[in-house]
């Protein structure tokens, strides 16, 4: 059986971080929304027994069992006692280690695909597997925009109007930010007086846009402030960092405005150093569908059926 789905990127419109917990994690309150920027995840479940393989064409550094998608597949097989060989192929469009959740989304896509292939209905176990893979993975198992609490596993649906965004991703390795470092910098900067999180999520409004991880990251990666300035200079209504960065994004009044700003900024930062993407938020996560070859999809018999 071969299944295909899209794995969308996300941005955090809101990210509030509480004090560190005893287990080393932080409680968060975050509003996450999926984007129309997505990887394509192709999962083949073989009838024969075997392990999990994972390939990312063009990115050999992402091949193999360390990929979050491969880890997710191995955990699903282990939890539900499945021996079938699983082959994963990922066509990457989402920048890697960018604060856009690409690896987590790929993992969730694999979990959804295997749940369909093995006819798994135990949502609680799937959610548990997702959280074991990564804190953002449970969000991508949901339906769409959501407020996330705890480590990210306590989700409640959110209504967010379509938003037109411009993403700026600096690919210079010197600007990369590990999530663990971003949280450590935050703890160091604010000391023992970390504020408590709001008791409940509220209806989204643009004034809520914000990211607690942004100030400590900008202090240590000042180049990101320049990118935020480019977005504001192109009339973004607001501009913030997504997740633990280093991607920053601006919210624009319309798709033409976002595309025009993206073109202008791309000319200013010409070269491989900064990736500029005009994207839009989407309401729902993509469905998993059986793979069909382009030839069979266009054949007369297929059209008649």
The CATH architecture of the largest domain can be named as: 2-Layer Sandwich
Q: Which CATH C-level class of the largest domain is it?
A: Alpha Beta
H/E element order = EEEHEHHHEEEHEHHEEHEEHH
Structural shape: globular
Mean pLDDT score:
91
Counting DSSP H or I runs of 4 or more residues, the number of helices is: 10
- Number of DSSP E strands: 12
Largest sheet: 8 strands, mixed
By secondary-structure content and strand pairing, the structural class works out as alpha+beta
At CATH level 3, the topology of the largest domain is Ribosomal Protein S5, domain 2
| Terminal residue distance | 21 Å
Low-confidence segments: 296-305
Strand content: 25-35%
Total tally of structural domains: 2
- The helix fraction, in percent, is 25-40%
Chain-wise SSE layout:
Blueprint: E1 2-20, E2 26-49, E3 52-55, H1 68-80, E4 84-91, H2 102-117, H3 123-133, H4 137-141, E5 146-149, E6 154-157, E7 164-170, H5 179-190, E8 210-211, H6 214-220, H7 223-233, E9 238-241, E10 248-252, H8 255-268, E11 274-280, E12 289-290, H9 294-297, H10 300-304
Parallel strand pairs: 1-8, 3-4
Antiparallel strand pairs: 1-2, 1-12, 2-4, 2-5, 5-6, 7-10, 7-11, 9-10
Helix pairs in contact: 1-2, 1-3
